[in-house]
Structures are given as C-alpha cells and as structure tokens.
Design brief:
Keywords: Amino-acid transport, Signal, Transport. Belongs to the leucine-binding protein family. This is Amino acid/amide ABC transporter substrate-binding protein, HAAT family. The chain has two domains: 198 residues, Rossmann fold; 158 residues, Rossmann fold (3-Layer(aba) Sandwich), CATH 3.40.50. Helix content is 44%, strand content 20%. It has 14 helices and 15 strands. A five-stranded parallel beta sheet has the order 2-1-3-4-5, with helices on both faces. Strands 7-6-8-9 form a four-stranded parallel beta sheet, sandwiched between helices. A three-stranded antiparallel beta sheet has the order 10-14-15. A hairpin with a 5-residue loop joins strand 12 and strand 13.
Length: 409
C-alpha cells in the first residue's frame, strides 16, 4: 500500500469513528433500576433472575436501532420500606435512574410509588402484589404489570368456592401484601356465599407456622387461606403437610406461590395445590423459547411470573421511551405506555388501563402429581384460563383518584 493509500485509509477510519461517536452522542440515555429481594424470602422468585430478564429485554429491543442507550442497575431492598426508599432516592437524585422495575414486597412498592411520583420518574411493578397500587395509591407514574391481590382472589378464591370450600380461615403475613390479599379474598368469599370463620396474623418473614396451622386446623374451616408468599408460603405448605392437614380433609389455598416455591417443595408435598398466576414457562411456544434462553443465563432455573413480567414490562417501557425519544418525564412515559397496546411473547396482546393496571389473562393452575410430571420443571397443569376482562378488579371499584368519575372495567 502506498503512503497515499495508507493516509486515505486512516482518514476513512477516523471519519467512520467520528460518525459513530456522533451517532452514539445523539442516542437518548436510559437507566433502569431493578429493585428487589436478593437475600430474603423472595430472592429465588425475583432476585437476580429479574435482572437477567430486564437485560434480556434490553438486548431484544436493540436500543441502538431506536436511538437509545440503555443501562440496567440492581439493588437489594431487603424487604424493608426504608431501605427501598433510600436506594430509590439515591438512584433518582444522584445516579440518573429513570425507572424502577420489579419491587416485590408491597410495603416497599407503595413507598416507591410515592417517591417516583414526587420525582416524576416511572415505576413499573412486577413483583409487588397489593391492588392498592392501582387503587387508592395509584399515581400517574405507576404501572402494575404482572398480577395483583384482586386477581389472585378472583382466581383461587372462586375456584375453592366452586369446589365446596365455603368456610375459610386465613393465615396472613402481617404487612401490606398479606393484609391486602386477605381483604380481597375475603370480599370474594363473602360475595359468593362463603364465610370467614377466623384468622391469624404472622410475622414477616416467618420460618415456623406450627402454632398458626394448629389454630387453623382447630377452626374446622374447610379452606385454610395462605395470605403470604415466597419462602413463607413454602414453609407453611411444608409444615401443613407434616401435620397432615390436607390429608385430614381441609384444603389449602396457596393464594400466591411461585414456580420456584413449588420446585423447592417437590410435587410429593405440593401436588393438588390450586393457585393463580399470569405466566408459566410451558404455556406455549413463546414462553418455552424465552424460558430456554433464560435458563442458559440462570442454569437450572425456569423463570417465575414476576421475572417474566419484568421482561415484558421492560420491552413495553422502552417502546414508549423510543416513541417519545426521552425518558426524563416519567408521567409522560407512563401515559405513552397506556396509549400503546401491549404485545410480547410472554403475555400476548393486552392494554394498560388509565389506573395503571396492565390487563391480560390469568390462569388457574394445579400442581401435578409426581406421576403426571415428565421432568424437573414439569410442575403445573392448567385448570382454567381466566379472560383478561374477568381477571382483574373493575376500574370503577378500585378507588383510584386518577379515574374518579370514570366508568369501565
């Protein structure tokens, strides 16, 4: 190569680098924070798997093609509202985070919703359950994606009633999620001809349910409603099995349970449990393909519904940011998320209501027997598909101040 050719090649390379740098400089920066339990009762069902799901969504969205650069950060809120609030304020005020995702533990989620509104960022909840996030505590900056306590009550509560479970006793985690789940399930039970004969509040988290289960057993209730989740729910179910509660004729309503919990319990213990969820890895070709990719990054794990919700909601959030070409005005991004129809391989087509509630079908599942299972994660069978318009509480009944005076489902 002559000196002239070398100079021309070098100049071309420099021009290309300059053009690439200019294009990168024109891209809109977006910073997503995944805030969840990385060390406690929900670490397995949310935790690092939710971070992996968010990063998979970013990769699948191909931010550069839409003029964006996206960074994902993560932190552990330890299931404590004060810890979650402190991290969120630091993320918003100092670290440039535009949106917070996941946030199991309803008491933490409620705190994050208010801080997010104050800072005009975006809060896309997947792991937290309380339906108050789209009820009295709704904000223009919140989307509640995966499930809520009202949907769980509609699904599992009604199913147990149809099977003859008219009398209920609740074992309830004594914090925002458990109290909301008991409240919403009690409302369904009583509306449909059942009655609540008693209940007990348990510490959160709690490793020993022996005394509470004995009280529930002594109540004679046909159904013992477990208004808890994660390792608490798994411990309660395991100890109920040891006490022979179901063998004695009482039913357990696992009002919220994740596939990781069923897996850890084993089907010998979990078989026959009915529960409601919005996602299962083996539902269809789309869920199976995603789950296969997820497992390559989380060896030996299938995604939970919460982690699937993080993936799908991250995709939709990025679509809204790309449409606005900005992530700075959180309320504007959430408004755009509500305007755009949702469509992803895990939850299919759906919508986000004015109160922030994401609408999609829910499923009533039953844990398989060991004989029915064909593999380590072949754990669920579908009993019923609950249509989207029936799964969630009507918007007119939620009490969201954003939609006061509006009608509709």
């Amino acid at each position: 190569m002559t000196l002239r050719h070398r100079a021309a090649a070098l100049l071309g390379s420099l021009c290309a680098l300059g053009a690439g740098a200019a294009l990168a400089a024109d891209r809109v920066p977006v910073k997503i924070g995944v805030l969840n339990d990385r060390s406690g009762v929900y670490f397995d069902s949310t935790g690092e798997g939710s971070v992996v799901a968010a990063r998979m969504a970013v990769e699948d969205f191909k931010p550069a093609d839409h003029g964006l650069t996206v960074e994902v950060v993560a932190a552990d809120h330890q299931n404590k509202p004060d810890v979650g609030a402190s991290i969120t304020r630091q993320w918003y005020d100092r670290d440039g985070v535009d949106a917070v995702f996941d946030v199991p533990t309803s008491s933490v989620a409620l705190a994050i919703a208010q801080i997010t509104k104050e800072k005009n960022k975006a809060f896309i909840n997947s792991g937290g359950g309380t339906a108050d996030l789209t009820g009295p505590a709704c904000t223009p900056n919140t989307v509640h994606w995966t499930y809520d306590t009202a949907a769980l009550a509609n699904g599992t509560g009604k199913a147990m009633l149809k099977r003859g479970g008219k009398s209920w006793y609740f074992i309830t985690a004594d914090y925002a999620f458990g109290l909301a789940l008991e409240r919403d399930t009690k409302a369904v039970v009583e509306k449909n001809g059942g009655r609540v004969v008693g209940g007990v509040r348990t510490p959160f988290p709690n490793p020993d349910f022996s005394s509470f289960l004995l009280q529930a057993q002594a109540s004679g209730a046909q159904v013992i409603g477990l208004a808890d989740a994660g390792l608490d729910a798994a411990n309660a179910i395991k100890q109920a099995h040891e006490f022979g509660i179901r063998q004695g004729g009482q039913s357990l309503a696992a009002l919220l349970i994740a596939i990781t919990d069923i897996h850890s319990l084993g089907l010998e213990v979990a078989q026959g449990l009915d529960f409601t969820a919005s996602f299962y890895w083996d539902l269809n070709a789309g869920t199976r393909a995603f789950s296969e990719r997820f497992e390559k990054r989380m060896p030996g794990k299938k995604p939970t519904s919460y982690q699937a919700g993080v993936y799908a909601s991250t995709l939709h959030y990025l679509k809204a940011v790309a449409a606005l070409h900005s992530a700075k005005d959180g309320a504007a991004v959430v408004a755009k998320m509500k305007e755009l129809p949702t469509d992803d391989p895990l939850f299919g087509k759906g919508t986000i209501r004015p109160d922030g509630r994401k609408i999609h079908p829910m499923y009533l599942f039953e844990a398989k027997t060991p004989a029915e299972s064909k593999g380590e994660w072949d754990l669920y069978k579908v009993l019923e598909t609950i249509p989207a318009e029936q799964a969630f509480r009507p918007m007119s009944e939620g009490g969201c101040p954003l939609v006061a005076g509006m009608t509709g489902k």
